[in-house]
Each structure stands twice: as C-alpha cells, then as structure tokens.
Specification:
- The protein is of the alpha/beta class.
- It has one domain: 3-Layer(aba) Sandwich (Rossmann fold).
- Helices cover 33% and strands 21% of the residues.
- It contains seven helices and eight strands; from the N terminus they run βαβααββααβββαβα.
- The strands form two sheets. The chain has a six-stranded parallel sheet, with helices on both faces. A two-stranded antiparallel sheet has the order 6-7.
- α4 runs parallel beside α5 and α4 packs across α6.
- The chain is globular, with a radius of gyration of 16 Å.
- This is Archaeal flavoprotein.
- GO terms for molecular function: catalytic activity.
- Pfam families: Flavoprotein (PF02441).
C-alpha cells in the first residue's frame, strides 16, 4: 500500500490564491451554500451546466452572481479553466451543494463536468477539496423551487458518499454545519478569516 501523498504546502500557492467553489445541479441548501461562499475571502464560482440551470430558480441568475463573484461556466469540452489549479491560483476546491450524480462521479474517478474535473485535478495536484454531499440521511427534507419535498436516498448514494470520504485530500460534509466546520478549519490552515459582511 502506498503512503498518502502530502497536501500541497501553502507556499506552493500564489499569494492571492482563491477558493474554487463549484455548484452542481442540486437545490438542496443552495441558498445557504451561496451565503457561505459570499462570506469567504476570495471565491470564484465554477458552474456545471446543471448548476447554471438550477441557480436562477433560487434567485441567483448568472448576472446577479457576477455582482459578487468571478463566474466560470461549463462551456468547454476539456474544462480549460481547470488548468488554473496547476498554476497555484486555487488553494481549495469546494463543491457545495453536490448532487448524488456529482458525488458518484467523483467517487469513481469520472470527470466530465466542470466541478468533477476540478475535483479530479485537485486530487492530482494534492489540493484540498471539500464536498457537501446532499444525500446523506435516510430522509432528506429539501427546498424545491416552489415547495419543500421529502427525498429518501438509496443505499447506493450512501455507499458513494462513504467511498468519496476515503479519498485523499477530501473532506465530505454531510450537513451544513459540517460544511461550515470544514471551511473554518481550512481558513485556519490558510491563516485567513471569514468576511464580516457578505455585501
């Protein structure tokens, strides 16, 4: 068995390195996730095609997002923006929220969307990733665009979350509190702090 590869040292990132925050196609805790992204110092948003479709349903069309973030859209087959990981421009990859589809792809090494490609390349570059998985409880109450709905994840979803949690340089958040704690820890490692205002 090979030894774990150490995470990249902080001095290997650019001094102005940022968070690469990826949004997949889930509406689960999407508003709360964007609120956390707004409070972090230095965040660029990477949208999957599905994420770009879902965000306007929750009040976040791309023009509004661009008032707060640099927005990178999933419009190249080879995910060209992923190359910025190799030049040290991003110290952390966050996927929040992550659909069960995105979790499954990440857990099995499939990288055919902008978020999954960023996750795969972050792993190859030993860049820490935080994945906020949506399907982590027997019953999930989530806000659809017009109503609250009950979702009952299958065993395969739980298995994929556990598989992903075993990956190097990956923290899987199963709740919003887990996500906040993981971000707290990463900020401490980076010697950074939350913004006092999201406006």
């Amino acid at each position: 068995m090979t030894e774990p590869t150490p995470a990249r040292r902080l001095d290997e990132f650019k001094p102005d390195a940022r968070f690469a925050w990826c949004v997949s196609g889930s509406g689960h805790m999407i508003e709360e996730s964007i609120d956390l992204a707004l409070r972090l110092p230095g965040v660029d948003l990477f949208l999957s095609a599905a994420g770009e479709e879902v965000l306007p349903l929750y009040g976040w069309p791309v023009p509004k997002l661009r008032e707060h973030f640099k927005v990178i859209r999933d419009n190249s087959a080879s995910s060209v923006p992923v190359g910025m990981l190799y030049s040290g421009e991003y110290h952390t990859v966050v996927i929040a929220p992550a659909t069960s589809n995105t979790v499954a792809k990440c857990a099995f090494g499939i990288s055919d969307t902008l978020p999954t490609n960023l996750y795969a390349q972050a792993g190859k570059q030993c860049v820490p990733s935080i994945v906020f998985a949506c399907d982590t409880a027997p019953v999930v109450i989530t806000q659809a665009p017009k109503e609250w709905v009950e979702v009952r994840p299958r065993a395969i979803e739980f298995d994929n979350v556990e598989r992903l949690a075993r990956f190097e340089h990956t923290k899987v958040a199963r709740t919003l509190d887990d996500l906040k704690t993981a971000l707290d820890q990463r900020l401490e490692e980076l010697k950074l702090a939350w913004n006092t205002s999201s406006s």
